[in-house]
Model the fold of this input.
Amino acid sequence: MADEGRPPDHSHNPIVRYFRILGPGLVTGASDDDPSGIATYSIAGAAHGYLFLWTAVITFPLMAAIQLVCARIGLVTGRGLAGTVRQHYPRPLIAGACLILLVANVFNIAADLGGMAEAAAMLTGLPALPFVVVFGVGITVITVYTSYATFAQTLKWLTAVLFAYVAAAFLAHPHWPAVLMATVVPDLHWTRRSVSTLVGILGTTISPYLFFWQATQEVEEEKRRGKKTIAQRRGATSS
Done:
């Protein structure tokens, strides 16, 4: 989706113009398809077949709505989500929320690194553990020492790899009538295994870091355009 608050692009090519205005929303949405998410969806598909396809119809609008709200918070207040919440709620509540977020993110990062390492091990035949260290150190170095503009621009164009899902969907030769039926007709078996899978799908699709990432990246985009103070970034009055 195109992001609110992006300056107009005057390119004569509508396709180029469209992709240039894409920014934080695209990156945040793509980041939700992280290694832990891929592993969760793969396990769900291997264990249950088409059974949980209907969850995409429900979770996608929810994820888009959350991104939209967080983007508007960043654009209107000129602050990230944590900074905005701090203006309206007691400090102990914010500390508790940040602690919960920290715990959730630690587990999420561990799952992501583990998923990446296992995929690399499958491709190379080497042990997975060294890849955890390599990926962890590599990502840390890139994040710390790369400028925001370069990092954000690279991430934006890396999202093009998600088109591989479209190709994979056709190369897998699924039974399309069954796919359509499972997508539009919810079918939940109230077993421990099915409910656990559903919780995993919901948890990995609407991840806590998305809320903070979207708002913060909107603020960083404004800073990159020269709006260094909160007053310059604020998109609406307090009334």
Remarks:
- The two ends are 28 Å apart (CA to CA).
- The chain has one domain: 14-233.
- The chain has a mean pLDDT of 81.
